[in-house]
Amino acid sequence: MSIFGDIVNKLFHRANPAAPPPATEATPEPAPAPDAAAAPAPAPLANVDVAAVMDQAVADSGQTLNWRTSIVDTLKALGVDSSLDHRKQLARELKYTGDMGDSASMNIWLHKQVMAALAANGGKLPADLAH
User: Fold this and answer.
1) Phi and psi of 99, rounded to 5°?
2) For residue range 5-18, what is the model confidence (pLDDT) as tens digits?
3) pLDDT in tens, 59-87
4) Rg (CA), the chain
């Protein structure tokens, strides 16, 4: 599973602990328009209040984390590996073209891309985070 898929699954599971995981693996970009004969697959995070789930994840972690601005804190709150190597892998997955040696710029880009991709996958985010 992709790192972004892992993020989506953890959010989905926290929002719907008794539900089975989403039927389709989440993709960081919206799926192409389906043909007229095919029914569209539901967005994996449809009706998930990402902010509420993340706020609860931070509270459950017992740490002081700012998931609203930090990709590292977002990953930590969800229990996802936040190491530099793992973030570089996520950056490659999301098609980052910048300098991976500049971790500050990469982290800012990653946070924006992850928030936008969560919204594209049906997640409800405050307007300032949905970019």
Assistant:
1) -80, 115
2) 999 999 988 888 77
3) 999 999 999 999 999 999 999 999 999 99
4) 15
Q: Is residue 25 pLDDT above 60, yes or no?
A: no
Q: Report the phi/psi class of residue 126: left, alpha or beta, with left for phi > 0 and alpha for psi in -120 to 50.
A: beta
Give the Cβ contact number of residue 5 at 10 Å: 19
| Beta carbons of 109 and 127 less than 8 angstroms apart | no
In terms of Cα–Cα distance, which of 18, 47, 27, 65 is closest to 122?
A: 47
Q: For the range 14-23, what are the long-range contacts, defined as Cβ-Cβ under 8 Å and sequence gap of 24 or more? A: 14/53, 14/56, 14/57, 14/78, 15/45, 15/48, 15/49, 15/53, 16/48
Q: Alpha-carbon distance 121 to 105, whole Å?
A: 24
